[in-house]
Amino acid sequence: MQETVINIEGLSKSFGANKVLDHFDLQLHRGENLVVLGKSGSGKSVLIKCIIGLIEPDHGKIQVLGKNVLNLNHVQLDQVRVKVAFLFQSNALYDSMTVRENLEFPLRRHSIQLSAGDADQMVREALQNVGLEHTIDMMPVDLSGGMRKRIALARTLILKPEIILYDEPTTGLDPITSQEISALINQIRDKYQTSALVISHDMRCVKTVAHRIAMLIDGKCYAVGSYEELAASTDSKIKPFFD
Amino acid sequence: MFSMPESLRAFLHETGEIARFSLRFFREGFQPRFEWEEFVRQCFLVGYRSLPLVGLTAFIIGLVLTMQLRPTMVYYGVEVQIPAMVGIAIVREIGPILTALIFAGKIGSSIGAELGSMKVTEQIDAMEVSGTNPFKYLVVTRTLATMLMLPILVLLADAISLAGSYLGVNMYETLTYPLFFKKVFDNLTYIDIIPAFVKTFFFGFAVGIIGCYKGYYCEKGTEGVGLSANSSVVASSVAIFILDLIAVQISDLFQP
What we know:
The structure holds two protein chains of two kinds.
Chain A: E1 4-15, E2 18-29, E3 33-37, H1 44-51, E4 59-64, E5 67-68, H2 74-83, E6 84-87, H3 99-109, H4 116-129, H5 145-157, E7 163-167, H6 175-192, E8 195-200, H7 203-209, E9 212-217, E10 220-225, H8 227-231, H9 239-242
Parallel strand pairs in A: 3-8, 3-9, 6-7, 7-8
Antiparallel strand pairs in A: 1-2, 1-4, 4-5, 9-10
Chain B: H1 6-29, H2 36-47, H3 51-75, H4 82-120, H5 123-129, H6 134-170, H7 177-186, H8 190-216, H9 221-253
């Protein structure tokens, strides 16, 4: 039986009268790429922000690596966050810092004791993984959209996480760069044996990275299956995504 | 039944939210871990980088104030009192209020825009998942920096303004530097200097906390960043005038 690294049960979240998640259930298994597919505004980003503790849900249970993140204090939550990386939709690179400082930030902030040499080596290794070692002393503003996405990806890798949460990793990128990022997601999984939860509605990305797909429709996990299984579905709510 | 106008309700709501934000500053600001590195960086940014603008404005105000006062003082035959009068005006009111308003325009807007931009590009969320308390890293350091740097800027602005006034006096007559400052300080007492200095800490706090509040809760994407910057300046300028009014009332209690 596959080990579950994220287990979500009965998750609900409303913003005023708008019920975004309604008793949502999902399991992410170790070593898989699971894509959550849904329309814009369907609550995909809310879901992963609940997982990482950025948004507090109204009801439900979220277990990450065996710990219920809703019951953790700040220190305990930080310990979980060392093992769970988050790639933000807008990259969230710190504008006032160089690429090196951006990558060193999580290392320093999680109070990881490292010599300057070790930190430098880790930064360079993370940048090598995304093919952008030469940008180490550049500012984010000097990079293209695709490069920024790669740097953001390198930052998620710096702590060697067990789980990576990708929030629309290819949004705003051209088709070629989107494919490169999708390929990179697979390379990272193969190299570091990470588990990934990918939020997307880019079907090329979905097809490239997904081992399984969970359909988020009307706030619920409407269906789960492989790309081929769901693409063959005749369900009127699933079919439009694959047409 | 009395129904409160929507604008008044919004104003009271925001005032309450800023008060709550300020309480959080005092609750979290003095708990470990303190972000020394970021605090020093902010002191440099808000203090040193404001100095040229504050200095230039202060010099011109000192010079112009002296030139504007002169005809009236000559008319009444009391031009010898120009240094004393300018000194009191600058130290008690013009120096602190003018520097604080320039500071609100330059630093309040930049804090509002910077934090607003960080909010809409998810940098604040990224900080939180990187094991950092963004409130302490961004809000506490910036607010403490504005609290510390504004009084220092006011002291420098007062000195530069008096230098401008000295130049203004010497455009029409010859007055030595020591004599000019003797006339200024002979007419200043601690009751003039201390309250004027103390109130600048509160001005600095208002500029910092309001700028941070506006940026930290920025909404509506890039449009919201502009609104944050703009409303930071407006709200902190109003706060400065209100605090000044309160400070004058309190300092008057100690006047002989």
